[in-house]
Each structure stands twice: as C-alpha cells, then as structure tokens.
Amino acid sequence: MRASLSAVLLVAGAFSFHASANPIQTTRSSKHQPRELLQLPGIWIENIAVRHNGDLLLTTIDKGDIYSFNPSRPNAKAQIVASFDQISAAAGITEIGKDVFAITGAEYSTEVGFTPGSIQMIRADFSKDRCGTHKNTTAPSIDFILRGGDVGPLNGLVTLPSHPNFVLGADSTKGVVWRVDTTSGDAKVIIEDELLTPGPVGPYDFGVNGLKIFEGYLYFTCTKRRALGRVKIDAFGNKVEPAELIAQFGDADSGAATDDFVMDKNGNAFVTVRPNLLYKVTPAGEKTVVLNGTIVAPASVALSGNEKKLFIATAGDEAASIGGQVVELDI
Ligand SMILES: *[C@@H]1O[C@H](CO)[C@@H](O)[C@H](O)[C@H]1NC(C)=O
Ligand SMILES: *[C@@H]1O[C@H](CO)[C@@H](O)[C@H](O)[C@H]1NC(C)=O
Q1: Fold of 6-330
Q2: Where are the domains positioned within the chain?
Q3: Residue 133 Cα, ligand 1 centroid: separation in angstroms?
Q4: Which of 6, 48, 230, 316 could lock onto 324 through a cystine, CB 3.0 to 4.6 A?
Q5: PANTHER family recorded for this chain (predicted)?
Q6: Contacts of 134 (CB under 8 A, 6+ apart)
C-alpha cells in the first residue's frame, strides 16, 4: 500500500514543480496576511513543533519523514532529519524533555485512514551535538518507544506537564485517548467520552485529533463532530469530569472538519478547520474567523516562542498541484 501511495504522490509532486497555483499572499511585509514560508510538492504536512532555537519540526504524510526548517531565514530549505521505517505517515509530535521529542507514525491512506497495528513511536533527541565540534544539532539520535501492537494509531500528542515522561495520544479511529509511558513503552486507554468519538455526520471518519493541556484541562478537537472541547484531568491524565463542548465549526452539511489546534498563554485556542479556515476561540467560547479561503487544507498550527506569530501547516491540494505548506501569520 505504501508503494502505491508514494507513487501517486510523487507524480503529483513532479507535476507541481511546473505549476504556479498558489492562493497565498507571499508579500513578507503585509501584516495579518498569511505568508507562505515553505511548500513541499506532493507532501502533506501534518504537524509542527517549535524548538527552543526557533526551528520548526514538521511531521509529514508521504514517506513518514520529519523535516527541520528555520522559519526566520529567508528562503531556508527544509531538511529531512528523521524518517519512519515502512510507514507513510509521521503524525503527532510533543516535547518530552529539553529538545527531546516523542513522535508517532503509522501507515495511512485516504481510503483506509490509519492501518491498525502499524503504529510506531520514536524518541528524537536533538539535545546532543551529533557532529562533535561542528555544533551541528539538526540530526537527532532516535530510539523506539513502541512499535506495532494494538495501541492507537495515535494522531495528536501532548506531554503531561507534571509527569513529562508520560504523553497522551489521540486515537482518532477509535475515538479514545491513550496514555503512553515513554520510558517503558507501556500504553493504555485512559480517557473515553462520547465527545471524543467520530460523530454521525461529516466528511472525515475521525474522532479526537489534536490535544493540548491548559490549567488542568485536556483540550481536544474532534474532527467529525467539528468541535473543540475539554475534559478535566488529574496530574496523570485521568478523566475527573465528563467532557464538555466549547465550540463547533460550520454546519453539519458544510464539509467542515476540525483538525489540530494550538493554545496561547491566555487560553485562546487557534483551531484549523478544513477545507480553508482558521478560527480563534476565547476561553469564554467566543469564536472568530481568523482566516477564510487563504489557506488550503490546514492541518495544524503552532505558536512562535514569543507568541507573536502562528505557523500553520497544511495538507495542500493535489488536484490543484498545491503542496503542503507552512504559512506564517502575525497575530
Ligand atoms: C549538518 O550536517 C549535515 C549532514 O552531515 C550537513 O549536510 C549540514 O551541512 C550540516 N549543517 C551545518 C550547519 O553544519
Ligand atoms: C468564508 O468566506 C465565504 C466567501 O466570502 C463566505 O461565504 C463564508 O460564509 C465564510 N465562512 C465563514 C466561516 O466565515
């Protein structure tokens, strides 16, 4: 399956080198306009993590590659810094120690979704200088946290703040949240709730997708329910109250689907909604449209270290020969 998926994407990628279709304003000086920083032909960018040095780590769906990218250097190129073996999708990423990241991957196709049993979770450690005197820290050391078995597959990931060796992972297929001990690889379903499950209508058969923790609550997006919600948890990620709905995006028949999100230090959520929307939701649940129509299949969003910029990762549109993008927006 992987071979045929890659072949299709490679054809699309080759074609898009000749295409100029690009809906994004690229003028770097324009404020409050999304600016394209990067486009990867034929590749879906799924998730972003921001390193302490400001570099972005991008998980991608095509060959399971993880890219590193410096968003502040004009015309910087993305470099592959790690790759999953035998699977097409790198998905969730979360920092579990200073410059150490847990990253999940699985076999994925648009027809099947995630293939059960195909999960891999790695630890990518960027904290050591891999090239001695060259101070070249772009190549992490990699080891497996878990591989195969009945866990997940896991999409969005978040680290438990008071126990950072534990991560929570969104099982979008079953609509539950798992807790993984990254030191032992032990994993169990820790949160079940109807709001996490794929709802009855919607274009993608995915439940819980993105995860963030803020002031004792696990915030989550649920794709098919077009929803942002939250559930109160304890320090080990156990559910202590039923989940509550915070906001819903679009009408049931609008084709809207919620993907991943980020939260700022004041508790505002920035939520990506397919096919082309970015919303801001305040702690009171008030939602405003930040972008409409100027992004293509937004998949996730991250904040710069000073919280003055958003980085939006997109899946692009193969049919229109638009690759996955990283788009920057001043807020
Ligand atoms: C880092 O290492 C890679 C692979 O060895 C090399 O291609 C790259 O130029 C190095 N970057 C720096 C800044 O030294
Ligand atoms: C996005 O823009 C389109 C075209 O102007 C409009 O019809 C639609 O209602 C807008 N969507 C939202 C969620 O504001």
Answers
A1: Neuraminidase (2.120.10)
A2: 6-330
A3: 12
A4: 316
A5: NHL REPEAT-CONTAINING PROTEIN, NHL REPEAT-CONTAINING PROTEIN-RELATED
A6: none
